[in-house]
Amino acid sequence: MSRDKKNVALLFWNTSLFFAAYNGMLPVFPPYIVFRGGTEQAVGLLVGLFSLSAVILRVYFAKLADHRGRKWLLGVAIFTCSTGPILYVFDFGLWYLALVRIYHAAS
Question: What percent of the chain shows pLDDT beyond 70?
Fold first, then answer.
């Protein structure tokens, strides 16, 4: 297998793992918010916050990639993508979950 094919296979595998982890969390997250004392409005806000933050942050990160370079930004994205899910383990309230959602969306 050529090097390019290996890179594409690795990219496909990593992307599949990322989306499996994210989509696996989607059905569990709303009941968890309610369990922690959140309302239906808080569920909607926290679930939608990820998508909204991702859209807004991508505009900023696109300009940053042009300015600082794509390799640097890829390193930041890998770091936030790796550490974001771990932060869900710690629970300091719904505001903390909102900040974690924004941080996780930055990946």
Answer: 99
